[in-house]
Amino acid sequence: MFRPSTRQNLPSSSSNPALEVKVNKRHSGIGAGSSGPSSRYPYRLNFYERPPTLDITLEEFETFAIARLRVLSHIESLSHRSLPYPQLVSAIQSYTKQHLPLSSNTARAVNLDEERRRDEIGHWVLRLAFCRSPDLRARFIRSEVALFKNRFESDDVHERAAFLRSLEFDWQVVNESEKQTYAEQLKSCMWGQKDDAFKAESWFKVPWYTVPDLVGSRRVYVRAGMAYVPQSLQISLVLQAFSSRLEKALELTAKNLPRLDEDERLGPVIDHLASSFLSGIGATDYQPADGSGNGSAVTAEMVDDVARKHFPPCMRNLYERLKRDHHLKHFGRLQLGLFLKGIGLPLDEAIVFWRRMYGSTMSDDKFNKEYKYNIRHSYGQEGKRANYPPKSCQQILTQNQPGTQDSHGCPFRHFSPDNLITFLSNSYPQLERSSPEMKEIMDSVKSTHYHVACTRVFELTHGVKKGEGLGEGESVGHPNKWTDRSRELERDVLEKIKKKEDSDEMQVDV
Amino acid sequence: MVDYDPSSPQVMNAFYRRLFPYRPFFLWLNQDQIPAKLFTHREFAFTLVGDVYIRYNSFHTADEFKKEVVRLNPSRFEIGPQYSARPRDRKTLAAGALQPQRRELVFDIDMTDYDEIRTCCNDKKICRRCWGYIAAAVKVLDHALRETFGYKHLLWVYSGRRGIHCWISDQSALDLNDDQRKAVVTFLEVIKGGKEQAKKVHVRGGKDDGDLHPALAEALELLKKNFVDVCLHDQDCFGSERGWEALLSLLPGDRDVIGPLRSNWQSEPGRSSAEKWGDLMSAVRKLKKNQFPLFRKYERAMEDVILQYTYPRIDAEVSKHRNHLLKAPFCVHPGTGRVCVPVNPDLVEQFDPDTVPTVGELLNQLDKIQVEGTNGESVGGQRKVEDYDQTSLKPYVEMFEKHVAAVLKDNRSARRAAHADETRSSTWSSPQIY
After folding, report:
1. ipTM score of the complex?
2. Residues of B with catalytic annotation?
3. Which UniProt keywords apply (chain A) (predicted)?
């Protein structure tokens, strides 16, 4: 994980108009402990029109951005999974509550200002990271709009109304006489609602292209280029305004970014954020689930069994290759070796494992000379003694692209569609060749959402409900997480059986 | 009379040298006298003889464009969007730097989409009779685009064989992004579903029992007459057993209504479509008193039938993306030799595709003039007399010029307003980063 070098002083002439955030080592603890909205953040919702002009620490700069990035990429992967809308909403809500909480004014025992400051700074930092290409901008806007929508819908009614008033939209209100003129047409767009509803409703008149979603679904009356939007569909207007303003602002930022004369401590952070969003995952290193617990250690003998039950497709592929050819190329060894370390294969077992896999194709002498070193190296026992973490999906997807003889990489990305289908249906009997599920997986692959495809495979092979992913809707972002979750599920099942047996026994006893 | 073959390069070359109306064509795309980005950053794609396809051509001036057209002598060419840079420079640009920006909003209606409901022709053929469908489509689409969406500068162009294109040059139409284009299309699109789907009209919400959207209600009113004229009388859509079974499959399956109708029609297969529609109407009318909900159901279904048989079947993909290429007006259709001429939407019902000038006829007319007109050189009036002025292409070019003049006028006043705005706001124009 990237750690910015914390050089002490900034040039005091902060000629940095893009981000009026003075990076400062001092911890800013504004209004610590106080509750209730302050004048800076009167509302929970935010259109992010004013850049934050307060001091933040370098660490906050990064952590706030990463927190938000996590939420955004989670939203993105959720939105590609065609969940029913209520399920999507609750999935987003539970995830944001955990990673980026934002409470309403009435919330107690919460530091509102701190939450809102976090939210705001995260947003502005990510703007810098995502303004660079049209593609990044579009994805950023989509996720931000989804997040805003989610918050908007869950916001307190009165606070929301106050917030909207504060934005001072110049929507033209349709007056009573015009309303009567088009009463017939307006009513027929309300789809079977009562006359009372019509009387109580009021309309805004806006150029139709500001609400393309409402026009596309024929939910509004359109005349002479103006769409008549009822109050009840106001959210479309708000979201449209939010996204178009954000889009303009991002384009402007992109234009001016080169002129930023950027502080070299921020640049790498920003680069890193953008690249980890591209692979669809918030950047995180894999932390092995506490090796001591639950007897999760694996011996060389157990690998074969674990592979059959718990390996994600990429590792499954490498392992099958190794078993068949008694050999793997360098990056394949690295990818599989680090992964095995991650699932709890200790160094001496790893040496046994690899020795056994190479089998008779290699003399002991050669193995000891050429291969043992690398294994020890990857366990941090040689060279600079760095304990390398297992590779994440992001790294597998983007680094060291496999050459013609290589078998490492991500099957979803690096296999041809035909081979992928064959591979999946051979490795996972639950996946049938021409099933609708397979088609769904291939569709995700086609749209380059590899982690979505992989997550779906996990769900299907583990009898997990669609959208659950690795638990609470998390998608596969690391091969080891797949295996951990898979083994955890197995343990749960075993425990259940055991409990059942116990209770059966007791019944027998009675 | 010489028999000019439209597939011969010499014929096409003569057409491009002498007949293609470059000046109005340039002004139409450029919307200004001086070459602007709308022209210089615009993509042109040429189809050469032997199906060689050259994309990403762009030109600095109208003259350069003409020279290249004459040199390449394409069998047809297409117009794309204005890009963020000159398309011809694309190889020197950074990846992703060539983005489509502005483009006329376009629509394409093609007769092939009507094959299941036309009885006179099929496939590539088209006759005066099937044009009735196109005429109905143009009427409805023209109305919707003008009244609902408020556009003014619509150019309808015969595609040379069996379809029609519409180009909208309003400023607000040029500026639409792909999402917005998609919204217009889904708003206007009513006929959906493939071959395996009988009922292709679902415009009444989830339960298929809502009111029609006002815009569709207007369309329905416009289409009722066409339905009677074209589908019932001319095409006799429900004449054959296949035809009336198709009709019955679109209606609610109430045995007491459908049963008698079917046996009635089977025993009397000679009943015309109009008579059958009448039978249906009277059967449904009987329901009004005692079974009002069922009556409404049938009434709605019959409205949907009218829509399914007459509502414009637009080729949605053409309109959705700015970078979709569409054949230029005044091209020659390589198969028929007919020129893609503008069509007046108010007179679209009288339009006969068979009377559209072909490149052969036009060249013959030119030959005649040259023979007769050796002493006609003293025409030296104000305006240079173009060759096409002396052929039957003239009225079409004039129609085009009139359209272009209106577009230019609007663009001028829009720019003047924008300019005024700019000078007003120039006080704080220094760039600000957010």
Report:
1. 0.87
2. 43, 108, 110
3. 4Fe-4S, DNA replication, DNA-binding, Iron, Iron-sulfur, Metal-binding, Primosome
